[in-house]
Every structure is written in structure tokens, then in C-alpha cells.
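Notebook, student rotation project (T.W.).
Task set for the rotation: take a protein with a known small-molecule partner, predict the structure of the complex, and write up what can be learned from the model alone. Partner molecule chosen: zinc ion. Sequence and SMILES entered below by T.W., checked by me.
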Amino acid sequence: MSKNLTDLEQRMIALLKSNSRRTVLDLSRELEISRITAKKILSSLSEQGVIKRFTIMLAEDERDLVLVHLKEVEGLPKDLILEYFSLIDGTYLAVMYYENLIKVQNMQVLDVKIAVRRNINEDCMRMEHMKCDYCGKDIVEKPIKLQMHRKVFYVCCSNCERDLRKRREIMEGHGEHA
Ligand SMILES: [Zn+2]
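Predicted structure of the complex:
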């Protein structure tokens, strides 16, 4: 059951999305790969520009956010914007801290929405090029996520889910008594 690079990359992205503060050691443990491999994948992802697309936020930063719909972002101090979306109609939707709202008052603000919390739903993530952790086949449908002993597994169907659970229980059982 060898995982290809794309599969591992996908898994690492999923882990980082749910918690961007994971270390290389955490990642290597969770993915059951060596630290060297984890580091290699991580730097390859940032070289490819995949990782910089994520907004890295601390949990305490995810409160008191405002979504500001702007006509222009040019001229807006960069350090005010956490992230922004360029919209199809040529306008922008910027995410910023509530306390900075006053600083954009002379910009062309179209709308302001005040958020109380930012939540990320991991289950909606796109997962392409993933292989089943049990049978090793490509996962075509939405992967079933399993969390066991602080590790995350993805399987293709409920049969593989059941069998993987069984196998892991036996493995973990042996580990404890060894
Ligand atoms: Zn499977």
C-alpha cells in the first residue's frame, strides 16, 4: 500500500488546513512517514506555491472579523487585509479585523458584514488523488475520514472503513503489549 506523492501532498494539505501550526514532527507522525519525507513534501508544497494560499490564523484571531466589500483595494494598506477575494464583477471582498474598519472609511466601501467567528469545515475540502488507506485504490467518491489513535485515515468505502478499524485495533493492541 504505497502512497504516491500527490496522495501524501493532499493529506498534508488537509492536516495543515485543519491546523496550520502542525510541526514537521506532527505531520510525519500523523502521516506515518519519516521526518525527512515530511519536510521534503512541505518544502515542495511551499515551492510550488500551494501552501502560501492558506491564510494562517491563530484561533484567537478568528474572532471579530469584518468582511468588507470594496470597489478598489489599491491604496489600502496591505497590513490591514488578512486576505481578500477578487470578485468577478471587478470588486473585492476583504477580510480584516474589526478594529481596522475605521481605517477604510475613506475607501469606496460597498458593504460591510461583521463576523463573530470563522469556522473551517474540513469535510468540504476537495480531496483529489487520494488513495484508500485500506485497499490502496483511488478514492473516487468523497473519502471517508477516520480518526484513530490521533492519526487520520481516508478510505474509499464502508467495507474498507470496517476492515481498517479492525486491523488498526489489532496493531495498536500488539503495540501496547509489546
Ligand atoms: Zn478501499
